[in-house]
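Anyone? Bumping this.
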Amino acid sequence: MIKEDNFITPIPTRWIGPIHIKGADGRLDQEVSVPLATYESPLWPSTARGAKISRLCSGINCTVIDDRMTRSVALRSKTAAEAHEAWQSIVARENELNDIVQSTSQYAKLVDLNHQIVGNLLYIRFEFTTGDASGHNMVTKAADALLSWILANYNQLEYSSISGNFCTDKKVSAVNGILGRGKYVIAEINIPRDICEKNLRTTPEKIVQLNIEKNLMGGIIAGSLRSANAHFANMLLAFYLATGQDAANIIEGSQGFVHCEVRGDALYFSVTLPNLIMGSVGNGKSIPNIEDILNKLGCLNHDVQSGDNARRLAIICAAVVLCGELSLMAAQTNPKELMRSHLLMERQENK
Amino acid sequence: MIKEDNFITPIPTRWIGPIHIKGADGRLDQEVSVPLATYESPLWPSTARGAKISRLCSGINCTVIDDRMTRSVALRSKTAAEAHEAWQSIVARENELNDIVQSTSQYAKLVDLNHQIVGNLLYIRFEFTTGDASGHNMVTKAADALLSWILANYNQLEYSSISGNFCTDKKVSAVNGILGRGKYVIAEINIPRDICEKNLRTTPEKIVQLNIEKNLMGGIIAGSLRSANAHFANMLLAFYLATGQDAANIIEGSQGFVHCEVRGDALYFSVTLPNLIMGSVGNGKSIPNIEDILNKLGCLNHDVQSGDNARRLAIICAAVVLCGELSLMAAQTNPKELMRSHLLMERQENK
Amino acid sequence: MIKEDNFITPIPTRWIGPIHIKGADGRLDQEVSVPLATYESPLWPSTARGAKISRLCSGINCTVIDDRMTRSVALRSKTAAEAHEAWQSIVARENELNDIVQSTSQYAKLVDLNHQIVGNLLYIRFEFTTGDASGHNMVTKAADALLSWILANYNQLEYSSISGNFCTDKKVSAVNGILGRGKYVIAEINIPRDICEKNLRTTPEKIVQLNIEKNLMGGIIAGSLRSANAHFANMLLAFYLATGQDAANIIEGSQGFVHCEVRGDALYFSVTLPNLIMGSVGNGKSIPNIEDILNKLGCLNHDVQSGDNARRLAIICAAVVLCGELSLMAAQTNPKELMRSHLLMERQENK
Amino acid sequence: MIKEDNFITPIPTRWIGPIHIKGADGRLDQEVSVPLATYESPLWPSTARGAKISRLCSGINCTVIDDRMTRSVALRSKTAAEAHEAWQSIVARENELNDIVQSTSQYAKLVDLNHQIVGNLLYIRFEFTTGDASGHNMVTKAADALLSWILANYNQLEYSSISGNFCTDKKVSAVNGILGRGKYVIAEINIPRDICEKNLRTTPEKIVQLNIEKNLMGGIIAGSLRSANAHFANMLLAFYLATGQDAANIIEGSQGFVHCEVRGDALYFSVTLPNLIMGSVGNGKSIPNIEDILNKLGCLNHDVQSGDNARRLAIICAAVVLCGELSLMAAQTNPKELMRSHLLMERQENK
């Protein structure tokens, strides 16, 4: 079955849902089934339970706050003063830089740049929009061109690295959340008390308390960093794999927050995902299965603006994360339900 | 091609290597080919270049420093004093706790417990050995039994959560590295200058400088946390997927370090991975393809001690990470090589 | 007034309170006035308001969870395997190590040791009790002796540093909170609704909500690390200076948490301070003014066990922190009160 | 000696130096003696040794990279979409906001604003220049006015907190370093090998290696955050106290980096301090002693631009930090020197 040199790893996958998803701008109000690729079969019924809640509660509201992709370069000067002077000159030439960027791709556009100086080292973080691509290659290509231009124009700077880890790709950081990297999406839902009780076997108060004691305080004492959630990573991995994304980006993707409140007699529950690095085109997306899936998700639409397909994908992703997170948190408010359901599901799977 | 409810996501996979791997205890000295499942095709030739270096340099030395799996529970008391008193009593009864643990699984054993108290909240972190399983389910089952026992024996404590995020699973943290979670493995290699120059087109000095400026300082300014590397996440994801692991654990897995030095006329290069959560049995491992792969990797050996197969898998994983990390870092010391090789490989892939 | 070479910097100081403080063990139930040395005069009335609350609410309960002081050394080996082997041997000889420690001081005792290995580097973190001293010098002396012994007994190890930053002193870290450093103290109070409303012009619900939105979530998005509070640092600085402590230790001291709940018709409010590095003897304590102050605080008692005076000081410190934190948080729940009171106080001060 | 209600805490203080300091812009090239207020007497000879090196090596070069002060407010909306819409409107009215700011102070000016949205919560971080004041009160006053204006103009927003911890003041964070808070200063020196050997009893290579193994890697494994140094906090505390600064700001001030290199036959050594919150006017500066000191330091000059006096103070501070850091690091490269010199100095002090 295994060919020596070139084979496939088959990840078990199921369609879950549909999830009722609404876009903040009112253009989106749909039920969307979603594929989850995972070895951990309990994720399917768990996320499905959240999806059912979405249908019972007239939908999950999704808002895209920001969208950009980044690459940082590292440069070496003789002194901090030279590095500082070079930075001041470079940042003043943003238009020239953007011309260089646009010569490398019809989709890439420079939208901002930031920097840090440490002793004689200068780190420049370029921020781009990259259309419907997640943009890894596009920004590397752009950064490569920018770096060549900088080295040609600033004799006081020499090459340190095409990627200075101030980007930062697939690594824990604070910078990605603070300066932005990927799509910044928030998904929210309001769940009446009776649905909490009947369908999630919990209460708004219990969920809010669990969020404080586990996600917020538990995370803080664990020495977490810009992260307060139960298991964002599980849903991200499964949805990234099923849609052809580079799933190593769940590292930063999983650095997100649950915020919830008791509102009147309902639960307000939200997931905030500041760093969803996703695309509807690019590496992995032209595999036939993946293309079919992206098409079914409505993310290969030709009639929309550049970037809209990828943002739609990120919106769906955030809704998936909300479904899975809500379901597990509800389970964990019940001392006994979690393990029992976990075991039950596994047994079913293994039949 | 896509069945609605139950299908597979096919991740492109290749065998890479072989990698020359040596165990620190002298029992392992083999060439091992490794499977990498990824949508990012450049990872294959890049890791293969590292594998070639391993063969030219008489092997990568791997050392297992630690091996444990954890689960924390959260409990609520009325006061800090009551929580403190309860903790002191519980920790004094470790033998009783271990009896409970062993009644839940023949493989689980309690090896340590730690705690935190915040106001009236008590978080207890149980640490177990779990044989050849990564242990997610085993420790949840054990923690469930421990929690029931605690609640039955300590009236001053009430249930907060079966998982208090002080574990911590699939989330960024400092606690996993400091108290331990998963297999703690270090892989090291010594590369003579001529091999650096000929096969990696770099020098020992350039690699050491890049590690300081990018992985260490670049990571620090990005607000990284217990993490200093270029792209551990890529190799971890690909090897985890190909071997049936729960790849969401690359979140903590990717929090590791590169340390390197110029030694005489050679490069000493090491990767330290404190949190490899991997198993040779359990969820995902009984899929036929995966079983074949684990078998080929020598990780389904019946003649070894419990845990040895999983540790062998983690050792191989660390060697894979070293290969990919070394290769990318070498590429990044050359201003132009990275992008060019990246583009070349993609073009080849797309033929 | 300024002598060239040797003068004093006069920090304005006031006695505040008294604070009603109770020890968790029932041995302490006193009203204690506390000195605060600060250039920021609004801190006095603010903390005094908290002190008044303590008297109205039958006291602040204080619990000491832990007490230890640490120093880490860094060592260099050739390989991870050698470092690992050395560590395993060293940790097995804890009794010998403790004999060495006790030969350096009659107060120092080794209570635990931890380690990290990164490539070929071995970091050993020694944990001591140090009587009534904060212990900086005591543990350096002990670590110096331990290091000499290790270098003499383990030829495979060579010196890297007497302090490897895994201690860690006066620097932000997760390790101090997770493994322990200094006195770990929790202070708690229950405040009936009417006192909240009348004396703090707020409600239990408003304080709890502010804690979630500001200290927990606001801290998390700021990229904080094991820290969730409004201004612990202010009270720590003022009390440390007034009692002759090394106030640079407010770096780790300020990494603490507020946890609060609405309980029935009252507010439960707590501050958790895992890393109070304080002593009643040692550098700075023999200055006559300081000695008088320590005496007035009841921290130079000769009839108590070694360490009890320093722990009493840490308990008082935690109560001071609670007073100041509660007062500022109450003020911040009122949109207008904060700035107005701030300005008013300053004007009064400047009369 | 102690008056009950109003007295001073006398911090032992000495003038150290002079330090030879050069400004990057060439306007500063002076020898400046500096006051250090501390209970830890070994800090004086240690910093003095660094000062001597500065004189032997033709000076410490100081560069000011940035200068701003911040305050964040927290607001509550009903939904993320409303929060997002409000933010987009607010940020588009930066000129109006700046008018409000300037009406609150002749020195405050709004230079940038940033934000975060978590669920329905909106955090806005205002960034100001504040002339020669550190700016705590100025930015609170400005933020208070901005907040009132926002609440009056945006009905969908309600008050959460005048300070949302995304500022962040006197607390560990990544945001202060990444977005900027306080004066961002770098101090650098080049030390010929013979001076390293004769006056610091070390070598350039030893210092560089210690920086890697202790400050960088040791800090990383300790779970540090944007911090890589040995003891910045000690010098900051002593200089802040002696110059009337709010020393609780050493929390963020101490989050800085040492970067050093062997250059030819010399040591390049630098300290980077991104968050020096200092002023030459404001609270604490009108105490007569402090005023004398600021005058002696040349920081009460009337003939310079607004802000220049405070930046001069920050430059001197960075130079002091370099002196103390260099001296301790040199001592720690020698296994025996640290403890011996520490003990010797104490004994001298106690004579």
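Late reply, but here is one note on the structure posted above: The mean pLDDT of chain B is 94.
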